[in-house]
Amino acid sequence: MTTIRATRPSDIPAINRIYNQPSVRRFTMGLPFVSLDASAHFFAANQSLRTSLVACGADGTILGEASLTRESSLRRAYAASLGLMVAEESRRQGIGRALLTALLDLADNWLNLQKLELDVFTNNEPAIALYRSAGFEVEVTQHHFAMQDGVLADNFAMARLRPGLVVDRTSPPPRPPQAPRQPFTLRALEPEDAPALAGLMNLPGIRHGTTAIPFMAETAMHGLASATGQHAIAALSGTALTGLAVLQQGQGRALHSATLTSMMVHDAYQGQGIGRALLNAALDLADHWLGLSRVSLAVLAENHPAIRLYESLGFETEGYLRADVFRNGAYADALAMARLR
What we know:
Elements: E1 3-6, H1 12-19, H2 22-26, H3 36-45, E2 50-56, E3 62-70, E4 79-86, H4 95-109, E5 115-121, H5 125-133, E6 137-148, E7 151-161, E8 184-188, H6 194-201, H7 204-209, E9 230-237, E10 240-249, E11 257-265, H8 274-288, E12 294-300, H9 304-312, E13 316-327, E14 330-340
Parallel strand pairs: 4-5, 11-12
Antiparallel strand pairs: 1-2, 2-3, 3-4, 5-7, 6-7, 8-9, 9-10, 10-11, 12-14, 13-14
Helix pairs in contact: 1-3
């Protein structure tokens, strides 16, 4: 008989053992020889957003672990990412389905989550079949996503949505009078830019096209300039902060890649070449200094000027992200794009 229960600190050695099994590692983002200390730190550091369950055999042996990790972005708090693994010796016994069923009950009936997301390598056919049977659909095919068996392998981003979500079709707010065109410069974002950055994030046009919330505080900007693996490039027109691009480099088996997590230009400085300059600078960093072969991003599906800019610099659409962000009381879709070298 299999029992599903909440994960306890005493379960971490058993979970670490499963995570280090070769076939489990192959289909996750794990590296060989993950230490017990690293596993303990991971569980301790993610308690506020992550709900973890284990499947136990009749003798109490841990057979598998699964989790929901809720989004930290307030405008994506309705969504969570799902992870699941089953011990090599416990496969084909319904353990994965039991864990998945428990997580779906938790998401639907207790946490009020509207969207569940997961990543699965495209060659993991049993897992894909399980997820499809539970209502997950492939939204994106991410090419050269991560190392697997010595090569860069593709990945499916799959999602399951609660029915009846209202799609936001509102137009962007009117642009303010445009500022006179003037020379601009690029430099690293600095901690003292926090007040100006908060002002930038609170502009109606930027809020409409990003995950910013109204009335963002200056304190929310702290740390952006110095986060690990993050490269923030600021644009200044005179002394005014008028744009920002943030490139977040991958880790572990995704060291070859980065995500453009932020790309914005001041509402009053659109059409002055600032966005193209920021994007070129981020790609130069990725290509010529970090040696990356994949840069990805998400852009709201109706943001046609931004999509044209990305396409002009080699980005291609990899898929369509339904209900990717909450906006104006409804949900807005996005395109997933990537540029490969």
